[in-house]
Amino acid sequence: MRFVRFFVLVPSAITIAVDAFHDCVQSRRSSLKRRRRRPGRPSFSSDTSSPCSGGICVGMTDGPHQGGNASYPVAWNGTTGTRLEAFMTVPQYPKALDGITYYIWTDIFFGDESLGRMNQLVPQLLLGSVLDESTGPPDYKPKWHTHATWMFGAHYFFETLNLTTMKTESHAAYGPLFPAYPGEKVYTLFEMILEGTQDDADTTSNKTSYVTDSFFPIWTLTMQVVGDPARMSILPIRHPYMGMGRNGPRPSYSWFEPNFQHLCLNSCWELYGAIDAEHLPTSGAVYNLTITQPKQEHSHAYYDFTTWEQDEGNGICPSCRVEEHHSRDTQQVNIEIQVV
Ligand SMILES: *[C@@H]1O[C@H](CO)[C@@H](O)[C@H](O)[C@H]1NC(C)=O
Ligand SMILES: *[C@@H]1O[C@H](CO)[C@@H](O)[C@H](O)[C@H]1NC(C)=O
Ligand SMILES: *[C@@H]1O[C@H](CO)[C@@H](O)[C@H](O)[C@H]1NC(C)=O
Ligand SMILES: *[C@@H]1O[C@H](CO)[C@@H](O)[C@H](O)[C@H]1NC(C)=O
Ligand SMILES: *[C@@H]1O[C@H](CO)[C@@H](O)[C@H](O)[C@H]1NC(C)=O
Known about the structure:
Blueprint: E1 7-8, H1 16-19, H2 29-36, E2 56-60, E3 72-73, E4 75-76, E5 83-89, E6 101-109, E7 116-121, E8 124-134, E9 142-153, E10 155-162, E11 167-174, E12 178-179, E13 185-195, E14 216-225, E15 228-237, E16 262-272, E17 285-292, E18 308-312, E19 319-326, E20 330-338
Antiparallel strand pairs: 1-4, 2-16, 2-18, 3-16, 5-13, 5-17, 6-7, 6-8, 6-16, 7-10, 8-9, 9-12, 10-11, 13-14, 14-15, 17-20, 19-20
The site of one 2-acetamido-2-deoxy-beta-D-glucopyranose has 5 residues, from strand 17.
């Protein structure tokens, strides 16, 4: 059965200001570094003084990287939901691979519910000593491996507070890993799909009670090499925190929950150990992102798209150029990263 009735996960794009809370949470750079950088290896190199070093991030103006609250509503119009498609080129290898941990990606991320502390949908390109595998249920602990050539896969990274230790612990889920080669183009799709039919939903009360076991949204991540469908990594995320949030004092297990109703986006070269030009990719990369919001029937509303800009990294080397334009429902972002 098809959905015929229009609804959005938030009442409408126009009413965001009324909701008025900042629900995309970016883990502090220092805590991310602690968990994603291989212990004992050099630091995120924008900390270093070398003029040609470190990573770079591009994101929504006034987004969480900048301490701001910019975010986009997650919407569904009965047939289509909010989606993001991104293309990027695979850069040339660095001259020196020792000590590096590279994660290169376009992500979407959400706020937290319950014991969640980080909630990032991040299919990524990998190089060096990286987190690239998960123990799977029930703990979803990430595991380290070392790669001397590019690999990629769909990936969900999240953190939860462990009430026994009172420590924030990282968790991950992965689609299959595949190799990628310099100069190739990699495509990433983030898509919200509704499982079940609206007949299965409890629509008699409020939004929260849409949540039933047979009607819920699934975020599906797909990453593949353009022109080679055999190298395609898919990860459907049926429940936030892969269901680990079910057991908290305030259980969380549906993407319908309030703090998942807005999302934030970034594209990053998250490079650890890129301490100098030798440890940076020897070429830049080109990205393009298309963010599409579903058309709202009987509405001429515009979605609130922000501008985009570089928000992390020294911006000198690597440097980047960012341009953005949008219509009512679609935003196009083009990014060109250069290593000089
Ligand atoms: C973001 O914060 C500003 C300043 O505090 C506020 O005026 C604005 O309504 C907020 N926007 C959202 C989307 O919450
Ligand atoms: C929390 O930490 C305890 C003690 O280290 C561990 O036994 C338990 O598995 C952890 N819980 C989760 C959900 O990871
Ligand atoms: C709406 O949802 C809230 C939060 O789950 C719940 O406490 C309340 O009872 C619900 N209201 C109705 C009318 O079902
Ligand atoms: C984005 O890049 C891909 C790969 O180069 C290209 O096929 C596509 O047309 C581009 N999209 C836009 C909107 O420029
Ligand atoms: C939902 O949005 C999509 C994309 O904007 C559009 O093609 C489709 O016609 C819309 N469906 C409804 C029922 O409005």
